[in-house]
Every structure is written in structure tokens, then in C-alpha cells.
Amino acid sequence: MSQVVLEARELSKTFASGAERIAVFSGLSVELAEGQSLALVGRSGSGKSTLLNVFCGLERPDTGVLALLGERFDYREPETAGQAEKRWARLRRRRIGVVFQEANLMPALSLLDNVRLRARLAQQPLDQCQAWLERLGIGELAERYPDQVSGGQRQRAALAMVFAMNPDLILADEPTGSLDRRTAEEVTAELFRLQAQTGVALILATHDPELAEQCGMTLDLAHGAPAGQAR
Amino acid sequence: MTLFAALFSHYRRHPLQLVALALMILVATTLWSGVRQLTEQARTSLTQSEQVIAGRQQVVREDGVAVTVGDFATLRRAGLCVMPWLEVPRDGDVGLVIGVDPLSAACFGDEGNVFGDAGYRIEGEPFVDISEAARLAREFPGTERAPTLVLIAAGAVKAETLPAGYRLSAFSKGPDTGELGESFLLNLDALGVLVLLITALLLRSVYRLGIVQRRDSFALLHRFGVPPAQIDRWLVLELLVLAVLCVVPGLWLGSWLAGLLGQGFGRSLQGLFDAPLYATSGQWLAPALTMMAVVLAACLADFLVPRTRLVVARRGQGKLAGGLLLAGLALALLGPSLIWVFAAVAIVFAGAGLLTPALISRVADRAGVASPDPLRRWRYRELAVMARQLALPVVALQFTLAMVLAIQALVTTFEDTFDRWLGQRLEAELYVPVPEGRSADAAARWLTSQPELQTGGAWHRVVRGRGSVSMSGTAPAPVDLFALSPVSSLVDGWDLLASADDPWGILAREEGVLVNEQLARRLGVGVGDRLELDVAGAWLDLPIAGVYADYGRPAGEVLISAGLLPAHFQAAFESFSITPGALSRAELISGLEAVWQVSELAVRDNEEIRSLATGVFDQTFLLTRAITVLTLALAALALLIMGWVFFTGRAWYFRLLAAWGLSRREVAAQLTRLSVGLTASVALLALPLGIWLTWVLVHRINPLAFGWSLPMAVYPGFWVELIGLSLLIGLGIALLMGRQLRAATVLPVSANSLAGGER
Lengths: 231, 759
Ligand SMILES: Nc1ncnc2c1ncn2[C@@H]1O[C@H](COP(=O)(O)OP(=O)(O)O)[C@@H](O)[C@H]1O
Ligand SMILES: [Mg+2]
Description:
Oligomer: heterodimer
Number of strands of chain A: 9
Strand content of chain B: 5-15%
Bound molecules: adenosine-5'-diphosphate, magnesium ion
Radius of gyration of chain A: 17 Å
Largest sheet of chain A: 5 strands, parallel
């Protein structure tokens, strides 16, 4: 049995909506091991992004326990916010790669410089960056700026950035959501190919059932489903 | 929803932008119209002094007593055409009003037209009916200048026709200042224009920001079938309404500002040109229309000149900027008159304005390429983007910093120099004017015979009057005479701008004269040149032994030994400067009182005079300082607003840094380094511009405007203060933005709606 990367227990999150609080998810538990992939599915607004943000510490759940990559965050007890923040920052910097739907690149840097920046923050060697762009098929675009390439190429660069940091966990929030079907399929294929090669754990938020099927597990947030169901 | 409501909803969502825009217009109007009002007032006053007063005679009593209404009646009964002229300070307000009697003005015939024509109607300020002036004088007694009655004589009044006990005397308000007064006002005009320019830049930057953000909604409206021309019309209307709403109170505040600064300004005008500041009725329409035009032009320049800008923007901007800079620098060096020098300043500023953002962004880009650390490279590239995106407020801040720096250097230099100069002028402890009708010779004999005065004491006698001077071949020009005897140790400590060997010895031996800087510049003479001097009909032909600085007055002056004055010379004024030394002050005063047979001698302590004079000069620059500080505050505020808006647009990318594992504090640190880097570069680039502007003010504008120049001094301490201030502005931006990053922790899913992806 491979090592557990992420283990969430009884996570709940509410948002204030005017006077009342709306629950996004409650009592949510899920577990993910090395090399596994999990799809978060559900309609728009069902809480996929919120959950991903919780998994990388950009958002705080109201309660629950989260253990990942050797760190434990117990939200049932009040923790000094600063300390948790520091531990989260360290994780995001070195071990958790986040990919958003778009705008993953700094507009003032070339694609290569973006990859180098991400690798530098993760303290990974900079000389592999060009190779990562090549592995994603955009080696010849290295010196271009984000606004000089297509949306699909930008997302490939975003994947290059994430893999260049050599993470243990990738959180991808609808990474192909703004691409046309064909391009989306190509980019996703790259993602799964590299995930298989590197053995990194992957959590992918998507509303596309076909894409979700390619993941080993699916967590349906559509109806605020309380628990993950492995397939 | 009406179209207007749809357009205006942007400001409902961003009220701060509307407030900023309104504030900009308001403050710009206040500053500019305040300066303008003072300038206009001074200009009118100078013209009036020239037109109405110059060359006129007044009737005075031979016994030296001030004339009264009784004298007026006597003269009118004698059939003489005289007119009462009563100058009364307006209480709590700026300037003097002049009471004249329209009935008695009638006998002036055509001459009287000066009061009616040329725009100065008797019923309009500064001229009021004499009864009104008398009422004002009664109601507000004890203002600093007591109202004085003067009886002006018509041209037909001749000395022979005057009744016994009266004589004619010139009604002059001091030396003919001619062009110099104009130059001084031109300086103020230039300051006003500079302020207007800077505020227009700021206004434009804030307005364009709003337009950029509203572009989406314009496109939407267009898709709904609203023709673009109609949107444009509404935008113009919207701006027009805003301008009216802000310009009108701005003008009101401007006149309030002018009133606030007017007292000091009036005094300095008097000190510099011996011209009083007359009250003028404020104008509203012209400045209001000007300001509206500036607001519209600044904000809507793109509508008016479509599509030409972009072409210039990228291509050849550096070359254009360089060309402008070179042309401006050359013109500043060679410009023959004040107008040319001002044009040079404008050209250099335009060049610098084009160059600065481009330079910062290029240097940052280069530095980015050169640095191997990706994070540092990112920071440099981001700085370059900022410099391009915030070009307008950046340039405005640079201009303002340069202006503040130059004016501070000028004012401080002037204060230092003036203080030292005044110290040398007022070397003696006491100043004793010779009472009317007493003999200065007798007093001089008495002083010579006091042995105690020789030990530690010193004195000299000063005779002031008028003469005329000519270089060989030129027409004689009137000049002030400053005659001294003996040439004591009180003067030999003067700093001379140029001198022969032993100038004071030459002066004492009556072998030469000294001239003030103004005269030397005007005549183009220096040490060793010979001057022909007409002193009450006696001709002197002497070399110039030295040139002395003479601040605060444009008149030319010649310093000679009093021994050269002919016996019949009519002194305008005589005085003694005395340091009593071993002689006690009381003994000195009682001795002089005995010689002159007066019961109470007017003796003034020179320390008092000095502090009085310093006070007047402090006020002289109050206006300039106040305006520069206000402009600086405005520029800082504008950059703060713009920087904040810029970072808001780019907030996503700072959150991206957080997603990549920078802690909030680290992100804030990056932010700070960026914004402080920008304002620091602006400050650094403002330094050379400011130093150059100081040089222009000191070496070009001041001599052309005032006839004298100051030593050029720089104040690195103040540079440090300015740089510190810029860093504070940068910190302010970072702080504002840091708060915003803290407020929203959620990463937006889509960056579609975000502007700010510029590179
Ligand atoms: N900062 C927030 N404040 C209030 N409500 C929020 C906030 N962020 C998200 N929500 C709400 O939480 C729910 C889940 O949002 P999200 O996680 O973005 O859904 P998804 O990514 O599945 O579309 C939505 O109803 C959304 O409106
Ligand atoms: Mg989402």
C-alpha cells in the first residue's frame, strides 16, 4: 500500500450570505494516496474550488481535520493563524502545485521565465525548465510571453510550471475549462501522462463527466454529498 | 434605466474615483486661480502706478505738514485744478482702494480720462468715491498703513500760480521699474502654468483610468444599439457637469487663497517694486472658462485628436524625447529673454516627461534580463510594466518633485544670502535719520569730536538722492545715489561680487565709485570701466572699483564718497549709521539731540530693522512655498490613487504568488519593493531635473527678471527629505494594496473579468 498523501476528516465550510450562513460542504471526508487521482465533480457553485482552496490552505474550513504530506491541520481547535499560514505556505511552495482555469502565468515574464520562477520558489534546479516545456510540446515557445500564445499553450506552460516544481500533490481547478474540446483533451492527456510518469497525486475539479472518468476516484459535490465514494 | 444612469453607474460602484476626479478639478482650480488672481492684481497695480501716477505732480505744504481737506479747499478757492487722492487699505482684504473726487477730476479735462478710460472707471475698484474711502478709513482705523491724503495737480498748475506756503513735488511711487515688474509677474504666470500643467496631467490620469474601466460597458451599450457618438456626447456632458460643479467652488477657494497670501504678497511687491497692491474686482468668467477648457482638453484629448497619439507613443519616442531635451537645454543656455527661457523650461519638461517612464521601464527591463534570479527578474519586469502603465502620474510626481526641489533651493539660497547681505548692510548698531531741516554736517562734526567713539565704535553718514548716469555715448539714465562719508569699517566687510584692489580705499580717496549688480548688468559694465555721473549738474567721470549685491530692489544705484557731492545737492534723505563703542547710547542720543535741538530723536535699532526686513522676505516666498507644497500633496495623492488602482487590477498575480507558496508577509514585501522602487526611481530622476531647474532659476530667470542673481547652491539634505517622501508615497501604496490582499483570500476562478494582464 502506497503512502497516504491527503486525509480529510469531517471538513465543513460555510459562507456568510447576508445574515445567514450557507453550507458549501459539511462532514466531508476523503483520502488520497501517492499516484492516485481524484475528480471533484458537481455543478458550478457546488464548492469544488472552495474545497481545492481548503486543500492548499488558501481557505480555512470551519471545522474538521486535514492531514497532508506529513502536516496535520486540526481545525477543531483554534490554532494561531500565523503558524498554520507559515506551514501552508511552505507546503504550497515546495510540495503542492496549483493550476487554475487560466491566468496561471505572470504576464510580464516569458513562458520559460515563468517556469523558472516556479522552480526557483520550489528550490528545484533551473536547468530542467526548458526540458519541461519541451515535454509539454511547447519548447520552441519558451521565449514568448503569455499573451503571445494560445490558451491551450498557456495551460501547457502552467502544467510545465507545476511539474517543474516536482510536487507531491497537484490541485487542478478546471484546468481546461476555458479551452475548446479538442485542445482540452490534448492538454488533459498530457496531464494524465505526466501524472502517471511522475507518480504524483492529483485532485482535479471539473464539471466534465468524461474528464472525471479518467481519474481513479470521483467525489461528487453536486448535492453536497457528504462523503467521497471511491469507484 | 436611462443611458445616463447606465453610464454613471460606474461611479456609483467606484465613488472614490469620482471623488478623486472632483478633488483634482477643485484643487487645480483653486491653485491656479489663486495664483492668477494675485498676478492679475499685481499687474493691474503696476499698470496703474505707471499710467495714473507716473509723471504727475502733487501739491505739498512748504512746512512739511501733511495736507488736509482744508488745504484742498484753499487751493480750489484759488482757482487751481487739484484733486484729492486718498489711499485706504481695505480691512481684512487685499490691496488698497483709492478715493478720488469725480467732481474735481472734471477740471483735469482730457488728462482726467486716465481715471475713466483704460478700464479704470471711477466707480470700479480700486477707484471709489472719496467719501466712500473716507468712510472706510474711519471704520477701519489703525491698519498697518495709515491712509494718506494727496492733492494731485493738473498739468496746468504751475509753481508760480501756487499760493504762498505750497510747492509742487513729484508724485512718484519709486523708481521706474519698467520691464522688471513685468518679469516678476511673468515668473508668477509661469508658476501658475506649471501648476496647471501638473494638475492637468493628474486629472487626465485619473479620468482615463475610469474610461478604461468603463470600456466594457460602453461596448455593451453599443451592442444594445446606442450609437458611439451618443455615448461620447453623454461623456462630454457628464464631464462638463462635473467641471462646472467643481470649477465654481474652486474659483471661490482660489480667491480665498489669494486673500490669504495677498498681504504678504502685497508687501513683497512693495518691497521689490515700490508699487502698492491695489484692490481689483475679481473676474469670474474668464478663469472659469479657461479652467473648463483645460479640464475638457486634459480629459478628452483622445476624442479630439483621434488615433495620432498611439503612433507617436511607441515609435521614436526616445528620439523625440532626446531631441526635445537637447533643444530645451540649448535654448535655456542661449535664450535672449525671459519668454525664451520659459519656453526652454517647457520643452525640457516635455522631453523629460516623455523620457522618464520609458527610461524607467527600459532600465528595469534590462536589469530584469541581466538578473539570473527569476524572482528578481519578475520584480524588474513588473516595475517596467508599472512605469508604463502609470506614466502620467509618475511624470506628474517627477515634475512636482523637481519644482519643489528648485524652489526650495532658490528660496533657501535667497534667505541665506539675503540674511548675510542684510547683516553687512546693517553692521552698525544704530540708525539715526537726520530730522527734517537739521544739518547733517553739524552732527558729523560733533561725532568726529567724540573720542570715545573712536574706541570700538564706528560711524558713517549716508546721503541718498538721485543722479543720472551714462556710459560714453549713451543717453543719461536716472540712477539712485548712495553717498557715504567717512568710509568706515562698517562697510569694508561687504561681500563684493567683483572688485579692484582696495575698493574702499579708492572710494574714500574719491578715485572711483561702486555700483550695484543691477546697474552693472543693465549697463553691461564691470570693474575698471568708467562711468559718467551727473550729480546735480556736476559731472564726474570715475572708474568702477567694485560691484556690490543689492537684493530686493530693481533700481540701479551708484555708491560714491559724499565728498564728491556738490554743495547744492538736494538730498532725498540723510541718515547716520553708528556703532557707539565706548560712548554710551544715552550719551550719543542726548549729544545729537543737543546738536539738532530736537526733543525726541528717532533712533532705530538695526536689529529691529533686520528682523522686520527678514519678515517681509519670508512672506515674499510664502506664496511660492504654499503652492509647491500643495501641488506636491496633490501629486502624491494622485500617485497613491493610481498605484492603488493599478495594483487592484493586478491583484490576481499577487495572489498567484501566494498560491505559489509565498507567505502573506512575503507577498507584501514584494509589493513594497515594487512600489517603493517606482517612487524611488521617480525621485532619483526628479533630482537632475530639479537641479537643472534651480540653475535656470538662479542663473537665467532671476537675472532676467530681477536684475540680480544669487549664488547657486544645492541642498542635499533636502534631496534626502524628498527621496524620503517618495519612499513614503511608495510605502503608502504598498500598505493600501496589502490591506486589499488580506481582505480577500479567495482566488477568483476566472481571470476573464480582470484587466491588469499588461506586460
Ligand atoms: N468568498 C466567498 N464568500 C461567500 N461565498 C462564497 C465565497 N466563495 C465561494 N462562495 C460560494 O460558495 C459556493 C461554492 O463556490 P465554488 O467553490 O467557487 O464552486 P465551484 O468551484 O464548484 O463552482 C458558491 O455558492 C459560491 O457562491
Ligand atoms: Mg470553481
